[in-house]
Amino acid sequence: MYPANPKALCSLCVSLLFLSLPSYAALPFFGKNDSAKPTLAPMIQEVSPAVVNISVQAKSKVINNPLLNDPFFRHFFNLPQQQSPQSRQRTQAAGSGVIVDADEGIIVTNHHVVEDAEEIIVQFSDGDSVKATLVGSDPEVDIAVLRVEDKEATKARGEIPIANSDDILVGDFVVAVGNPFGLGQTVTTGVVSALGRSGLGIEGYENFIQTDASINPGNSGGALVDLNGHLVGINTAILAPSGGNVGIGFAIPANMMESSLSQILEHGEVKRGKIGVLIQDLTPELAQAFDLERSQRGVLVAQVMKGSAAENAGLTAGDIITGVNGKATETASMLRNAIGLRSIGDTVKVSYLRDGQVKNTQITIAGDEETEAAQTKKTSDALDERLEGLQLGEIDNKLVIQGIEQGSAAYYTGLQVGDVIVSVNRHDVSKLADMKKALQQKGNLLLRVIRDEMPLYIVIQ
Questions:
Q1: CA-closest candidate to residue 309, choices 343, 333, 277
Q2: Which of 220, 236, 329, 420 gives a 20 to 30 Å CA spacing to 206?
């Protein structure tokens, strides 16, 4: 038998490799007339008309210097004792958006792009402009939905098909299209660097696609597409220690965006579902304490609220939730997304461990009203202008901070979600009624809170 010709064998292997490549987009397109030059131009030409520039006219609050709250300071500088009402100044902002339903004139962008907008102008890639109105937004996911009344304008540009973002993989090629720095439509390329990024503190619900495609200020609300020209994400943020792009950008997955979009179009807002549990990550130490392998991943149920959907389904404190509808939930953030991003009334299959045994149960996701009626009384309005944006709940005779509205007065106080308020101006509080009574005292507030089992004092002016 003659030895194989190495060159011939190598050539054959390469030929077979290219013949066996799948037909979906994995390599750049090739130009017209069978040009051998790789290019993304054909796909970009299809996508770019559906990516728009958004300019916003808004009015924002002017935050007064805290020193102006001090009567001695005002007297010393001969300032009137009565402060003038908080003023508002006119601001301009710019971002990007994506046409997702051309027939109905529906455009998706980021909530922070159009927040407090008084006028919204949509500019297309060919320079034409039209006015848009805000249908609704989801601040916790940072999604907003706009409608253009001139539907012929959106029909002429078309829409970007929405992909199933669960199908993308780390290493897939992606293209970011947007309006960085107000320069006009710009295209950058990269790959999916990571999936399921959370814990960044950017949004309430985080499950970001991380990419090294260059994303800069002004790209917010723009499209992240695959090589098929399908929308896999909405660009929303960058990690920029120096203020510029360093190759770490984040996009909201298309599936998460669609969840908010459908509720906004149907109800004008997004209502979060809950099952009524307090949870924490299962650390290796906790896993060992529960007689499990240290490598076991899951979410530990720390408490089940009385009368909640979770209690009705049989969950108890100490159960370890490992999946929802067959999809693993390895962290508390993943479980929060799996429940909170579904519609109220949906039924999910929850897998969990109890005493080392795998169990399953069906849980119907409840709304805030049902959960609150079962366990907590939640503040709907601000208790006091000094605590505007703070949401408190009564849980086991404790006042627990359950939410803080981003950008509100409470947001800048140093308080955090999960803090337990135990006293106000040295008066013990355990109920909302106690809190309201203590807040009748004017001037500064001295709060004593418990955070991670450690007490601390916080002064609020």
A1: 277
A2: 420
- Which helix (H) or strand (E) segment holds residue 45: the answer is helix 41-47
220 part of the active site = yes
The angle at the Cα of 304, spanning 344 to 430, to the nearest 5 degrees, equals: 105
Q: What is the pLDDT of residue 173?
A: 94
Which entry of 48, 55, 96, 112 is annotated as an active-site residue?
112
Question: Can you list the domains of the chain with their CATH numbers?
Answer: 49-157 (2.40.10.120), 165-255 (2.40.10.10), 277-371 (2.30.42.10), 377-460 (2.30.42.10)
Q: Is 112 a catalytic residue?
A: yes
Catalytic residue, from 220, 260, 308, 423: name it.
220
CA–CA distances in Å: residue 106 to residues 141, 144, 159? 18, 10, 9
CA distance readout (Å), 409 to 387, 419, 442 = 6, 17, 16
Placement of tokens 């539907």 in the chain: 151
Which residues in the chain show pLDDT less than 50?
1-4, 6-26, 370-381
- On whether the pTM is more than 0.90, the answer is no
- DSSP three-state, residue 330: coil
Q: Is 142 a catalytic residue?
A: yes
